[in-house]
Amino acid sequence: MTAARRLVHLAVATLALYGATQQAGAAEFNLFLNCAGKLNANGKGKAATLDLAMRDSNETALIQRSNVLPVGERLKYKASPMVYAMVYKLPQPGTHYYNDWVHGQWVVWQPNLKRLATIRLSVDRQTAELEGELLDFNDDSLGTITMDCKPMTADDMPEPKF
């Protein structure tokens, strides 16, 4: 009888775990920002767009669409009463990690092929204005971003066409 009882407890625990993971996946992102503005670099300006999907549970912001930032990357953010502050450190282009199965990473090769290394963004939670800075590997500024954002919900987002 104790073996049957253990089997029932295991089945109940498995179902509870499955239900919790399904619920977390369904409500992945809770805020979407549609931003448009300008990128200024080297004395020149360029129109810039950015769509962010933000998730409060692990404080990440996914770049869904942009003509100036790497699409598909996740930025860590911190929310304060005034701003969402985000930082993303890009790996140096051409970086190669060599791993072994037991001890993990052991050799890193980093040729310096491109200059963009860090993206810093902040979104004012009152005015929805985004300010950002693009930095190289020496923390020298490559450009600045200024945008106006419009908060959206998952219902406002367009459905995938395919």
Describe the structure.
This protein has 162 residues and is of the alpha+beta class. 15% of the residues lie in helices and 51% in strands. It has 1 helix and 10 strands; from the N terminus they run H-E-E-E-E-E-E-E-E-E-E. The strands form 2 sheets. It has an 8-stranded antiparallel β-barrel with strand order 1-2-3-4-5-8-9-10. Strands 6-7 form a two-stranded antiparallel sheet. A hairpin with a 4-residue loop joins strand 2 (44-55) and strand 3. The longest helix has 25 residues, at 2-26. Residues 11-15, 20-26 and 105-113 have low confidence and may be disordered.
SSE blueprint and pairings:
Blueprint: H1 2-26, E1 31-41, E2 44-55, E3 60-66, E4 74-79, E5 83-89, E6 96-100, E7 104-109, E8 116-124, E9 129-136, E10 141-152
Antiparallel strand pairs: 1-2, 1-10, 2-3, 3-4, 4-5, 5-8, 6-7, 8-9, 9-10
Mean pLDDT: 77
Oligomer: single chain
- Report Rg: 21 Å
Indicate the overall shape. Answer: globular
Q: Give the termini separation.
A: 52 Å
Entry summary:
The protein is of the alpha+beta class. The protein is built from 1 helix and 10 strands, in the order H-E-E-E-E-E-E-E-E-E-E. The relative contact order is 0.17.
Give descriptors for this structure.
162 residues, alpha+beta, 8-stranded antiparallel barrel, two-stranded antiparallel sheet, 10 strands, globular
